[in-house]
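Lecture notes, continued. The same structure-token format from the folding unit now serves as the input rather than the output. Read the line below as a description of shape only.
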């Protein structure tokens, strides 16, 4: 009777150990999954930062190009103004009614 009780207790202990082992395995699996998700989130964040940096570079390039175009337009305007002054400054270009 006593041996039977000991065997029963041993069996119960083995069952509990097995249950604990199963829980531990499940916890390890969850932790691994969480690590994997964190890693994926990190990769996505890194990709977003990279894209933002790329967009910033493109915006900077666009700004430089706009500035360059404004400068050229200004030069063209100045040149046109100079040419206009030269054209109307020459007596040959004035209308005949304006020549005294």
């Amino acid at each position: 009777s006593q041996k039977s009780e000991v065997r029963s207790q041993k069996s119960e202990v083995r069952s509990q150990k097995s249950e604990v082992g199963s829980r531990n395995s499940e916890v390890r699996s969850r932790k691994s999954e969480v690590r994997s998700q964190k890693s994926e989130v990190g990769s996505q964040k890194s990709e977003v930062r990279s894209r933002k940096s790329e967009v910033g570079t493109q915006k900077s390039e666009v700004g430089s190009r706009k500035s360059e175009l404004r400068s050229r337009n200004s030069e063209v305007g100045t040149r046109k103004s100079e040419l206009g002054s030269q054209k109307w400054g020459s007596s040959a270009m004035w209308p005949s009614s304006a020549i005294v």
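Point for the exam: The chain has a mean pLDDT of 90.
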